[in-house]
């Protein structure tokens, strides 16, 4: 396709160059006169195309269709003659002679406003002109196919993008649910852990209080035991002192 496009681009470039050269040598026409001239060229082109088609049909043996097209050619000739007369009357003779050429938009060949039917038929039915038509039509088909493939590719990419986005959305939703589940699980675990710690602290405090009370009771018992022992020792000392005093008195009595 790129080769065909380059070929057509070169042809169009030559067409524009030819138009510029004609514009340099021909007087500028008013819009009304230019439109009349264009009408003459269009009718001449129709005559040439229909003549070439009629000749081809005659060679193929389709005489009736060829005759029907020749009748259309005669009508085009009549319209062309009237168009030329209007165009000639709309401008001076000198200018009319200068405006006798134009450039074929298909193959960039020069065409004359006064070319006879035979020459027009040879041009529009010729290999060069028909070849350029075939190339342009083929290029148009290829461009349409490329655009269709691009459109399909774009649609497929859009579908893939939407599918990937949906998959990401589902994946994100799944991750979000798992995250919420883990968060809830961690929350429950923290709650249970906090509860266990609270119970442990409570048990620890209870145990500490119990140990403290036990120590208090044990200490109280030791103190009472020490008190009793101290009282016993005190009474024992009292008895010993009392006994010792009694003995001394008794000895003194004996001595007296």
From TrEMBL:
Q: Which Pfam families match?
A: LUC7 (PF03194)
Task: Output compositional bias ranges, type Basic residues.
Answer: 176-191, 198-243
What GO cellular component entries does it have?
U1 snRNP
- Give start-end positions of Basic and acidic residues composition bias: 163-175, 246-256
Residues annotated as region Disordered?
163-256
Question: Which residue windows are coiled coil?
Answer: 8-86, 132-159
Q: Name one GO molecular function term.
A: mRNA binding
Listed GO biological process terms: mRNA splice site recognition
Alphabetically list the UniProt keywords: Coiled coil
Q: What family classification does the UniProt entry report for this protein? A: Belongs to the Luc7 family.
Name of protein:
RNA-binding protein Luc7-like 1
Q: Which organism is it from?
A: Araneus ventricosus (Orbweaver spider)
- The gene behind this protein is LUC7L_0
């Amino acid at each position: 396709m790129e080769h065909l496009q380059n070929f057509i681009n070169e042809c169009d470039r030559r067409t524009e160059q030819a138009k510029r050269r004609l514009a340099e040598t021909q007087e500028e026409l008013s819009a009304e006169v230019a439109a009349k001239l264009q009408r003459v060229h269009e009718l001449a082109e129709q005559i040439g195309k229909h003549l070439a088609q009629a000749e081809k049909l005659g060679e193929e043996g389709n005489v009736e269709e060829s005759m029907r097209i020749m009748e259309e050619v005669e009508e085009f000739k009549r319209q062309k003659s009237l168009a030329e007369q209007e165009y000639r009357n709309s401008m001076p003779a000198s200018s009319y002679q200068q405006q006798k050429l134009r450039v074929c938009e298909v193959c960039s060949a020069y065409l004359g406003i006064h070319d006879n039917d035979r020459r027009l038929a040879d041009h529009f039915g010729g290999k060069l002109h028909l070849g350029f038509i075939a190339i342009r039509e083929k290029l148009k088909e290829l461009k349409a196919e490329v655009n269709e493939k691009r459109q399909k590719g774009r649609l497929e990419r859009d579908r893939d993008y939407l599918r990937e986005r949906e998959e990401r959305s589902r994946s994100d939703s799944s991750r979000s649910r798992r995250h919420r589940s883990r968060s809830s699980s961690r929350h429950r675990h923290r709650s249970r852990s906090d509860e266990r710690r609270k119970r442990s602290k409570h048990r620890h405090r209870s145990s500490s209080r119990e140990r403290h009370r036990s120590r208090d009771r044990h200490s109280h018992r030791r103190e009472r035991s020490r008190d009793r022992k101290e009282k016993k020792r005190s009474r024992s000392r009292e008895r010993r002192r009392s006994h010792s005093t009694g003995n001394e008195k008794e000895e003194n009595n004996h001595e007296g």
